[in-house]
Amino acid sequence: MDLAEFEDLVDRLGEDISAWPEPARTDARSLLAQSQEAREVLAAAHDMRVGLGRDQTVRAPAGLVDRIMHQAHLESPRFSHSGSPIWSWRCGLQFYCRCVS
């Protein structure tokens, strides 16, 4: 087994060599014993799996919605002399936030 074939198997089957089919498992262990590059490929695959398994949720800072709504309220739509509102993106934001909350 060469390094390219090993990389392909790691990509397709994962870094747990014990779960690979027997002929590939034996060849992979032999390559790992000889090749630092193969060990690095295996370590990178492990790091990738661990990294992707972590909670990657992005959360807004506490109070962000309140600050946005407060600012939007301060900049509420102004009315023209005819009495109709002068709309802006801030008005749309206020309307959207009321609809989704």
Chart the SSEs and their pairings:
Blueprint: H1 3-13, H2 22-34, H3 36-53, H4 64-74, E1 78-79, E2 85-86, H5 89-100
Antiparallel strand pairs: 1-2
Describe the 3D structure.
The chain is mostly helical and 101 residues long. The chain has two domains: 51 residues, no CATH class; 37 residues, no CATH class. The chain contains five helices and two strands, in the order H-H-H-H-E-E-H. A two-stranded antiparallel sheet has the order 1-2. Helix 1 packs parallel to helix 3.
Q: How much helicity do the residues have?
A: 55-70%
Q: Kindly state the mean pLDDT as a whole number? A: 80
Low-pLDDT regions: none
Outline type? rod-shaped
Q: How many helices does DSSP assign?
A: 5
Strand segment count? 2
Oligomer: single chain
> Could you describe the largest sheet, including whether it forms a barrel?
2 strands, antiparallel
What would you call the structural class?
A: mainly alpha
- When the domains are counted, the total is 2
Using the CA coordinates, give the radius of gyration: 29 Å
Helix and strand string, N-terminal first? HHHHEEH
Q: In angstroms, what separates the terminal alpha carbons?
A: 58 Å
Strand arrangement, largest sheet?
1-2
